[in-house]
Amino acid sequence: MSVLTDSRLCALLGCKYPIIQTAMGWVADPKLVAGTCNAGGFGFLAGATIPPEQMEANILKTKELTSANFGVNFHMYQPNAAEIVDMVIRHGVKAVSYSRSPGKDMVKKLKDAGVVCMPTVGLPKHAKKAVEMGADAVTVQGGEGGGHTGAVPTTLLLPQVVDAVGAQVPVAGAGGFKDGRGLVAAMAFGADGIAMGTRFLLTQESPVPLQTKQRYIDCKNPADIIVSRAIDGLPQRMVMNEFLSELEKSGNLHRLWLAAINGLKYMKLSGASPVGLLKSAHAMVKHDGLTWSQAIMSANAPMIIQKAMVDGQPAEGILPSGQVAGVIDSLPTCAELIAAIVQEAESRLSALSRD
């Protein structure tokens, strides 16, 4: 048994390799998740931007495409969170991932049903709190990571979190990983594996339209993948494009107006009520320290991301991305990607162990 397959993360999740595909909204669909899991990794379905009936259909479809374990991602403050918890338990989903505003009662209900709880954190104190609330493992994302992210790079943050909670639960490193060298580096820092979003977005199984994928591939400079607060008032890493450039120049009134429009679109899409959305916003204000303006603007992200990720209009939406996109130039299958990561990791480990 190799050091890769002997990982605590593999034992906990029931996968062959400690390689996790993160749950990107509009991207992590049944085909991508099944492709990851069938190749020996562990995939999370995105459940934060779709109505419950579609979430259930995606769970069932994933079960048709793979017999391997997989997970579901959602926000515990979203209006349909309780429904997703129930269906995860009902369908025997192996794990859940979540980030903001973890609900203590929901975590307990999931754990009592044997579901692995694996939140994403951005600071050691958040990791400690998550474990106190019952997390079975944590993913820690450094500032290089895509979407909502922090300012501390993975190389500094990952060892801190390992020191804080690594003796209690497995830790996966995220932000800047794409290959076997990165997997070995993460394990050298004390992590039990890696989690990747952008690298899996740029695979054959990813549902993202080719014209949008090409915008990522064409981005050759990691410095062009910036952190902006223009979408929802929170730091979010994205590829600079036409839409983001214009939004950066606009004022707060324009952004709030855009949020109001997108909030209505999101209600129609998700089936959420105005009261449900207000409750979600209140949870973000109460537990995450957001202002009401930031909470309201959070309605922007799902609908603007949809423009690029679903509609194939990369100039008219946003392109959430880790900086690693600046050094990716291929679109392999999930099987090819994971096989290459494992082969390179084993080669690096072998080279390091030579006398």
Architecture overview:
This protein is α/β, with parallel strands linked by helices and 355 residues long. The chain has 2 domains: 8-207 and 329-352, Aldolase class I (TIM Barrel), CATH 3.20.20; 211-323, no CATH class. The chain is 47% helix and 11% strand. The chain contains 16 helices and 12 strands. It has helices at residues 8-13, 30-38, 52-65, 81-90, 104-112, 124-132, 154-165, 180-188, 198-201, 210-218, 242-249, 252-270, 274-288, 292-297, 300-309, 334-352, and strands at 19-21, 42-46, 71-73, 95-97, 116-117, 120-121, 138-141, 147-148, 171-174, 193-196, 225-228, 236-239. Strand 11 and strand 12 form a beta hairpin.
Q: How does the overall form come out from the CA principal axes?
A: globular
Terminal CA distance reads 21 Å
Number of helical stretches of at least 4 residues: 16
CATH fold description of the largest domain = TIM Barrel
Q: CATH superfamily membership of the largest domain, which one? A: Aldolase class I
